[in-house]
Please model this.
Amino acid sequence: MNKSLTIRINVIIIIVVTFIHTVFGAYGFYTKQQKRVKELEERVDADAARLAVAITASVWNMDTNEVSEIISSAMGIKDIQSIIFYDSPTYNQTKGESSEKYWNVVKGMTRDDEWNVVDISAQEKIGSEAFVVIKKVQKGGRELGRLKVVMTHRFINEKGEAEALMWIVQMVCIILTLVIT
Model:
């Protein structure tokens, strides 16, 4: 009778501890992911603003090699998926408008499937998990072009997966400890 009661109490304790650990783990995971996403959004905006300022003189001097070097240097940040500099828009005769899709790609770099940096073609692919920021490149109030910076969730998700795995390992250790004792 005492052994049956002990088993019931241990099972109840295991269930309660598992439930509490799951609730707090899920909440912690969710809040950390949201914080990482917000930080990435803020960082992409700041990085795009810095890059727009950094390439202004090179664009003004029409030094496309230096623009390419600045973009290449910025691609060292692993969260950046692509950086594209567009010059003045091409006027769409049929619609009588100029919009972003008619801007000419001057220089740009993106990542291939293995995440290596490659020169961009006029048609770049942007994943659905990307943050896109477009900044004007200006000098003396004159718009010289636009800079598009694309960042990805890819590494945020990898960090989250690693944390989830650690949480599962912790949970297994807690349950084993409770069962053994």
The chain is about 55% helix and 25% strand. Helices lie at 2-60, 64-74, 154-180. Strands lie at 80-89, 103-111, 117-119, 130-139, 142-152.
